Amino acid sequence: MSENIDNWFNTARFGMFVHWGHSSQLGCELSWPLAGGVFSLPFCNNIKVDEYHQSAKTFNPQKYNPQEWARLAKRLGMQYAILTAKHHDGFAMFDTQASDFSIRNSPYQKDIVKEFIEAMRSEGIRIGLYFSLIDWHHPDYPAFTEADKPYNLLKHRQPTTEQWHKFTDFMFAQVRELLTNYGKIDIIWFDGSWERTPQQWRAAELNDMIRALQPDILINDRLPGFGDFTTPEQFIPPQPLDTMWETCMTINESWGYNSVDTNFKSSRQIIHTLSEVAGRGGNLLLNVAPMGDGQIQPEFLERLAAVETWMQAHAESIIGTKPGLEPWQFYGSSTRRENLIYLHLLWKPYETISVRGVPIKKIKSVYNLKDKTPLEYTTRCAIMESFNPNPMGELTIIVPESVIDSYATVIVIHITED
Ligand code: GLC
Questions:
Q1: Nearest by Cα to 225 from 206, 249, 212, 240
Q2: Can you list the domains of the chain with their CATH numbers?
């Protein structure tokens, strides 16, 4: 079971995903516009391939302040942050010797990945790098052209054997740079494997190289056949999984900054998602999509500010916890840490809530997490069980209106150790 895996990631619970690239200037989503859009991105429109790539020439995010992002992540209780070092459009956000198509040759010039890593590290946030296996810009991939539209998820133009060797050597070189030039990297997050076979990606060899360069790194499951954790996208698994897992999710419906996408989730929805994910033993990798100048859009910041306020009082019930009770024991999400059980109330209760199958004679206290207000409760078990020194029974907690949090109330059950 994943709850026994001894790895920081297994109980990290909250991370920041940053989808950012030169096309953020166009406010149009990352990479997919050049391929004409894709079913999963309702606000992504078609942009001519050349026009899309052109925006690399003007990328100059003067308001990029990774220290601010790092402080935000820290205040939110996030344990790690993952930046798109290279997305499907092939543009390297880092200083690469393997190609000219990078931030080095944009007006900004400075190594965005390096600045991100240094800032996150200074706040104690672990580092992850997103790296797309797909490269729609590299001539030997081969590059995606107007003639390849409409994009077909199942069918892709194939390179010659010689081209493919050249491309994979280049791809390996970039991965090597990322894992050599910036110190310890905690996660490498691949994407885009669907366009080629594991053999074509040289997945086994890539895996070996990564492990040799960064022995403690975690690899996601999008390096086909390998990987340390699974990555359900825009979806929470209905039950705990046997593997470590991470749901990646957007605040609206776009990964990269998209100025027309106003389908924002509410702060409450984000908090509830985080509770549900924690209750099933996973991590939430919440995406922020900075704009072309490097600022995070106000609609995201507003929502994150409410999440932050909630986390200030409730992080203890999320970060570093394990899944709590079984669904039959409590009709909601719950987590636990040692002898504390955290009940996440994602609905408003009618006077009381019930918890079943708990050691009722060992309950030390029940309280509202936010202000530590003790809550009244009663217990019961089957009559014949009352003579049992440690019976399992039902706990009924009175939840007054006054303790209801407008986002999610968290109630703690403290069980004695003996
Ligand atoms: C999809 C998309 C990509 C996005 C990723 C995040 O694979 O292709 O744009 O970066 O999901 O999980």
A1: 206
A2: 3-317 (3.20.20.80), 324-415 (2.60.40.1180)
